[in-house]
């Protein structure tokens, strides 16, 4: 996921020198100067095609995960990563901006596929008590990549007219390292046992992961999931979307992904330097403040790792969204009154950095993790594909629309994000279940109105009775309210049915 973070931001720093490269290539080919509109169009394609590649890679992730395995899919994916980085690196030497665009497309596909496979792989190899913390490593890789691209993109390092191709060439390193080191890691035991029916290989993988031969409890938990999957086999994207019992978890997964992308964080990453300058900081100070954003993302993601399995995913997500909501209001205030008071400059910086802090502890990592947790083994790959496609589509939309929002709304450009943050907080409070310390089958049973119980040492799934309000505890009432859809469906023991 370092690759994803790095290539998300790497193209921003050398914008001027790449635009000059596009102009020089056009001049050498035609003998005429390129128009500013045409140059900006080519530049926009080079930037946005990364997200388009990510959409395609994300939607194919489920198929690749099922056919080649989680580990196998990641290994194959590195070929695309190396090819994309090579195309971008040699684009200047070959005098071809088309190579740069094709390289961005290939590396986008690589990153989109990674965002589908990596959370799935991490959630499936992790013990229940560590699943949250290990799942956060996914986002840690993204933030490290973002920071690395910011540092290397400084004009004194690789952000120059001569050295910018090497800035893109750095993307070869994470792909090559993964290609060399991933073979040392085992395949997902769940994939081996449930999909490939290879219990001996699954046991070997578990023993390697747990560093002990005492893995019977983990195997039994996987067998329970396998037995449940006999009634719910591997599903395609279309089957997941049509399955009524999966509509609520799929809705939650989609909204969680949107809560990561449509809350303004990409606007902060893409345009943070401009935001700081518009708040009154000098250009040099604004560049360093932008790097501070990257540093804070890394530090706060590290801080959130132990919290994930203590406080819980839902709790952290609510705190994160709530904090971002408040900070977005202060960002808008600082933009409105920046010329009235000198201290407003500091308010702008503090509000933006605090916005990033709250994003890192909540919406930064939790949507990837909780999407993989909401589904049992059968529909999980297809559900991840849908969620990743939505995430990349929203990413593309923000990059496309936010510059227009700045022109139309000017100093009020963050207010739409403030409204969306409020909507996402309400949805998360009412609908998102806590997945901390629950097995995949226990989480799936929540949405089927079932309970996973242990009888004489054997785990089994039993149907819940329809709720009787006057006998319910406050805790059970809250849980059932949390699992009602927005007035469209009620989940009963026999599956969803229309509300009357």
Automatic annotation (TrEMBL):
<dbReference type="InterPro" id="IPR036259">
    <property type="entry name" value="MFS_trans_sf"/>
</dbReference>
<feature type="transmembrane region" description="Helical">
    <location>
        <begin position="99"/>
        <end position="122"/>
    </location>
</feature>
<keyword id="KW-0472">Membrane</keyword>
<dbReference type="Pfam" id="PF00083">
    <property type="entry name" value="Sugar_tr"/>
</dbReference>
<feature type="transmembrane region" description="Helical">
    <location>
        <begin position="164"/>
        <end position="184"/>
    </location>
</feature>
<feature type="transmembrane region" description="Helical">
    <location>
        <begin position="343"/>
        <end position="370"/>
    </location>
</feature>
<feature type="transmembrane region" description="Helical">
    <location>
        <begin position="134"/>
        <end position="158"/>
    </location>
</feature>
<feature type="transmembrane region" description="Helical">
    <location>
        <begin position="250"/>
        <end position="273"/>
    </location>
</feature>
<comment type="similarity">
    <text>Belongs to the major facilitator superfamily. Sugar transporter (TC 2.A.1.1) family.</text>
</comment>
<dbReference type="InterPro" id="IPR045263">
    <property type="entry name" value="GLUT"/>
</dbReference>
<feature type="domain" description="Major facilitator superfamily (MFS) profile">
    <location>
        <begin position="1"/>
        <end position="436"/>
    </location>
</feature>
<dbReference type="GO" id="GO:0015149">
    <property type="term" value="F:hexose transmembrane transporter activity"/>
</dbReference>
<keyword id="KW-0812">Transmembrane</keyword>
<feature type="transmembrane region" description="Helical">
    <location>
        <begin position="382"/>
        <end position="405"/>
    </location>
</feature>
<dbReference type="InterPro" id="IPR005828">
    <property type="entry name" value="MFS_sugar_transport-like"/>
</dbReference>
<dbReference type="InterPro" id="IPR020846">
    <property type="entry name" value="MFS_dom"/>
</dbReference>
<keyword id="KW-0813">Transport</keyword>
<feature type="transmembrane region" description="Helical">
    <location>
        <begin position="317"/>
        <end position="337"/>
    </location>
</feature>
<feature type="transmembrane region" description="Helical">
    <location>
        <begin position="41"/>
        <end position="62"/>
    </location>
</feature>
<feature type="transmembrane region" description="Helical">
    <location>
        <begin position="411"/>
        <end position="429"/>
    </location>
</feature>
<dbReference type="InterPro" id="IPR005829">
    <property type="entry name" value="Sugar_transporter_CS"/>
</dbReference>
<dbReference type="InterPro" id="IPR003663">
    <property type="entry name" value="Sugar/inositol_transpt"/>
</dbReference>
<feature type="transmembrane region" description="Helical">
    <location>
        <begin position="285"/>
        <end position="305"/>
    </location>
</feature>
<keyword id="KW-0762">Sugar transport</keyword>
<dbReference type="GO" id="GO:0016020">
    <property type="term" value="C:membrane"/>
</dbReference>
<protein>
    <submittedName>
        <fullName>Glucose transporter type 1</fullName>
    </submittedName>
</protein>
<keyword id="KW-1133">Transmembrane helix</keyword>
<feature type="transmembrane region" description="Helical">
    <location>
        <begin position="74"/>
        <end position="93"/>
    </location>
</feature>
């Amino acid at each position: 996921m370092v690759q994803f973070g790095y290539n998300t931001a790497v193209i921003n720093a050398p914008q001027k020198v790449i635009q000059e490269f596009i102009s020089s290539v056009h001049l050498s080919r035609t003998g005429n100067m390129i128009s500013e509109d045409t140059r900006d169009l080519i530049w926009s394609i080079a930037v946005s095609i990364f997200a388009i590649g990510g959409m395609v890679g994300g939607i194919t992730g489920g198929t690749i995960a099922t056919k080649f395995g989680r580990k196998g899919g990641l290994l194959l994916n590195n070929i695309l990563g190396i090819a994309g980085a090579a195309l971008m690196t040699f684009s200047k030497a070959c005098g071809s901006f088309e190579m740069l665009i094709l390289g961005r497309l290939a590396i986008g596909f690589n990153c989109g596929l990674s965002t589908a496979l990596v959370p799935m792989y991490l959630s499936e190899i992790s013990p229940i008590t560590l699943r949250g913390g290990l799942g956060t490593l996914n986002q840690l890789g993204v933030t490290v990549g973002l920071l690395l691209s910011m540092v290397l993109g400084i004009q004194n390092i690789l952000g120059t007219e001569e050295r910018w191709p090497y800035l893109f060439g750095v993307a070869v390193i994470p792909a090559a390292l993964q290609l060399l080191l991933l073979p040392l890691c085992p395949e997902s035991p769940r994939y081996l046992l449930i999909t490939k029916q290879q219990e001996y290989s699954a046991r070997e993988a578990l023993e390697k992961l747990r560093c002990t031969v005492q893995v019977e409890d983990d195997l039994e938990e996987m067998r329970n999931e396998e037995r449940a999957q006999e009634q719910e086999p591997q599903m395609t994207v279309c089957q997941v979307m049509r399955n009524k019992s999966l509509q609520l978890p799929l809705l939650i997964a989609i909204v969680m992904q949107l809560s990561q992308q449509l809350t303004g964080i990409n606007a902060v990453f893409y345009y943070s330097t401009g935001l700081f300058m518009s708040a009154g900081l000098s250009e040099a100070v604004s560049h360093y403040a932008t790097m501070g954003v990257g540093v804070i993302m890394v530090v706060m993601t590290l801080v959130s790792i132990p919290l994930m399995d203590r406080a819980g995913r839902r709790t952290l997500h609510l705190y994160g969204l709530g904090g971002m909501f408040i900070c977005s209001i202060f960002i808008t205030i600082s933009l409105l009154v920046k010329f009235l008071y000198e201290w407003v400059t500091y308010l702008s910086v503090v509000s933006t950095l605090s916005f990033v802090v709250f994003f890192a502890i909540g919406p930064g990592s939790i949507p990837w993790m909780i999407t993989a947790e909401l589904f049992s083994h059968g529909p999980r790959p297809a559900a991840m594909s849908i969620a990743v496609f939505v995430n990349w589509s929203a990413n593309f939309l923000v990059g496309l629309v936010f510059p227009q929002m700045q022109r139309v709304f000017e100093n009020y450009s963050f207010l739409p994000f403030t409204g969306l943050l409020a909507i996402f907080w309400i949805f998360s409070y009412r609908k998102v279940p806590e997945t901390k310390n629950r097995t995949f089958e226990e989480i799936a049973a929540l949405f089927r109105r079932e309970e996973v119980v242990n009888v004489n040492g054997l785990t089994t799934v039993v149907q819940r009775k329809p709720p009787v309000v006057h006998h319910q505890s406050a805790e059970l009432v809250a849980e059932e309210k949390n699992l009602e859809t927005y007035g469209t469906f009620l989940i009963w023991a026999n599956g969803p049915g229309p509300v009357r």
